[in-house]
Structures are given as C-alpha cells and as structure tokens.
Amino acid sequence: DGLTVGGVRKLLEDGESVPDKLKLKRLPQCIIIGARKCGTRALLEFLNLHPDIKAVDHEMHFFDDVDKYSLGLEWYRQNMPLSLPNQITLEKSPRYFITPKVPDRIKQMNSTIKLIMLLRNPVTRTISDFTQVYYNKIAKGKMFEKFESLAIDQRTGKVNTGYKAVRISLYYQHVERWLEKFSRDQIHIVDGDELIVDPVSEIRKVENFLGIRNQVTEKNLYFNETRGFYCMKQGTKSNCLGATKGRKHPHIEQNDNKLRDVKIQMRFVPFSPGLLCPSAVLI
Ligand code: A3P
C-alpha cells in the first residue's frame, strides 16, 4: 500500500501492527560464515535480539551441502523466517568458512552481501573443537585420543595439519578464498575472544557494519556468574545458551615443548598480501 521502510518503522514504533502481507521470506542479506567454535551461536542469538534482524534459528548448511544446494535458491528462501522490508535476514552456517565452493556460490546469489566472519585465538578454537568431538565420542562410549597426540604429528614432531581441528584454525588459508571473491569492506571480522568478555562492544561494531541502529546493549545482556558467560535478558526471563556452549576444556599439557611450538606456529600466521594475523584477528 505504498508503505516505505520509514513508514513500516513508524508503525512499529507507534506499536501498530504491520500488515501481514508486508512480511515475506527473503534471502539473507547477511551471513555468519563461521568459523566453528568461535562463538557463532552466541553472536546469532545476541543479534537476533535486534528489532531490525530476523535470524534463521537452525544452521542451514545450504551452500556447503551438495544435496541442499541442488534444491535451489527458492528452496533456501522458503526456509527463511518471515521478515519486514526494514529487517535484515541473517543466517549462520559455520562450515561455509572452510568449504572451497561456498564463496563463489554465495557471490552468485548476491554479490553485495555482507559477511560476518568470527575468529578467535586459533589454539583455543582448536581445543574447543577437540572438546566438542571428545564429548560426542564419550557420549557414544568410544575411546578417544589425547589432544596432544592429535595436534602433534607423532612422526615429525610438528603441528599436525592433517588434523581437521588444526586445519580449520589455519584461518589465513580460508580467509584467502573469501578475499578472492569479496571485497574487504563486505567482510566484518568479529573477535570471538572479545565476544565472550565484552559482547556489547562486538555487537555494536556489527550493528555499524550492517548500518542499523545500536539497539543491543547492556539492557539486553548480563554476565551470568554461574555460567561464566553472558546471557540474554528477555523481559523478566534470563536466557543462556545451551550446555553445549561454554564447555569445560580438558586439561592440555602446557609444558610439552612440542605444544609450545603449536601455539607459536598457529598464532603468527600471515594473511595474504599486507595482512597479518597476530592473534587471529584480521587488521
Ligand atoms: P566452548 O564451548 O569451547 O567454550 P560456536 O557457537 O561457534 O560453536 O562456539 C562455541 C563457543 O562460543 C564456546 O566454546 C564459547 O567459548 C563461546 N561463547 C561465546 N560467547 C558465549 C556465551 N555467551 N555463552 C556460551 N558460550 C559462548
């Protein structure tokens, strides 16, 4: 009915209901592409508190899964939540970060899309990844190796880049592929370690990147002493992430000389020309 984005916003601000026909399923204008175990769930849930964002609650894995991708963009769109014209549809699938075909596929869908890349200290990420697989295997009653023997190649004594958890943490290899397809200003990097200790600041940077109002603040998040993480305040309710987020990491033998090498080699990896990654944060 000729309603502009400003008109819709005014209706919402005035507490009026927006005509249902304005709510549509739209392809995402922003995607959190990973990396796994860097805080992707926390970021998605926190951003979903924003009135201008509509997030898909589950991981779609559309662009990295051959079977799903073959269903086409219309199938993908049908799986998006209903949104208003002024809202940004947001999806997150952490495997996008590491899957070679994904940048090109996303570019074919929307060459001006905004991408959020979450990175954190690569050693912590590797241990977090190990911990997740460890818990899953323990739950299935399987035997499991120690982190130290997986992360170090027992034959050469060097970092075992054949171990998937290590490979994912070699961020520069993956980032390079994204930079081949997208311009730097289309990619916003969130520091996953900062997201744990100061989520409001990290979210404000995302809001600025997306060009939306700064709405998610200390009013929405509080530090939960019992969990040791920030949780969401929704009215009188407190909402923390599930028990699979913020797991206790197993003890890793830090005095192991070989493991000290892992830290050094994984922390100081150069990105492509002119870009350095001292602690997994692209400058
Ligand atoms: P750990 O469980 O190893 O501590 P992802 O959602 O991408 O799988 O990332 C999981 C990680 O998010 C957790 O790893 C945890 O450290 C981090 N995280 C960041 N903010 C969090 C929060 N508010 N609550 C729980 N976990 C959070």
Textual characterization of the structure:
There is one protein chain. The protein has 283 residues and is α/β, with parallel strands linked by helices. It has a single domain (22-277), classed as P-loop containing nucleotide triphosphate hydrolases (Rossmann fold). The chain has twelve helices and twelve strands. It has helices spanning 5-13, 40-47, 66-69, 73-78, 102-109, 122-139, 147-151, 164-169, 171-181, 192-197, 199-210, 257-267; strands spanning 24-25, 30-34, 53-55, 82-83, 88-92, 114-119, 187-191, 221-224, 229-234, 237-239, 269-270, 276-277. The strands form four sheets. It has a five-stranded parallel sheet. A three-stranded antiparallel sheet has the order 8-9-10, with no helix packed on it. β11 and β12 form a beta hairpin. The chain starts with a helix and ends in a 6-residue tail after the last strand. The structure holds adenosine-3'-5'-diphosphate (A3P). Residues 36-42, 94, 128, 131, 195-196, 229-230, 241, 245-247 line the site of adenosine-3'-5'-diphosphate. Adenosine-3'-5'-diphosphate binds next to α2, α6, α10 and β9.
